[in-house]
Structure formats: C-alpha cells, structure tokens
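Before relying on records like the one below, remember that each one covers exactly one chain. Contacts with other chains, cofactors or solvent are not represented anywhere in the record.
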Amino acid sequence: MTACMIRYDEQYSSQVEEFIDRSDGKIELIKDPNLKIDPYFYERKEQLQEILKAVDNGTMKMYDQEEWDIQMQKLDEELDNL
C-alpha cells in the first residue's frame, strides 16, 4: 500500500467517508494523532523548517542570550516611550 495525506474541507467529510467505505478496504483512513493534539501541526512544522533554513543560510540572524536581552530591553524602552 502507498500512504499519502489528503486535505479536504470539513463540509466534504461525509462524501470522503462514503468514498472510503465504497472502496471495499482498498482505501484506509488513518487518523493522525498529531492533528488531534494540534490541528496546525504540519503548518507549524513547515514554518519551523523554513526558519531553520533561513538561519543556516544566513538570511535570518540568530541572537545569543546577551544580544536577545539587549534587543528586548531596547524594545521595552521604545514601547514605554510611545
């Protein structure tokens, strides 16, 4: 068997389930536990992979703790001055 992910609008749930039922066991519906805990699991995973690529290729800067603290202090000061 081949495994793949199919995404569909909730309004088509009954049609998808009917189609699977008519497949006589040739199509199996497997619920992903990650999506039960976090419905946006795969979107977040993709975003994280893009961020890691950007850090690796240098298009996004990664701050160490000291730099982060300095930047947050500057931001706090700017917000206080608004």
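Residues 10-80 form one domain.
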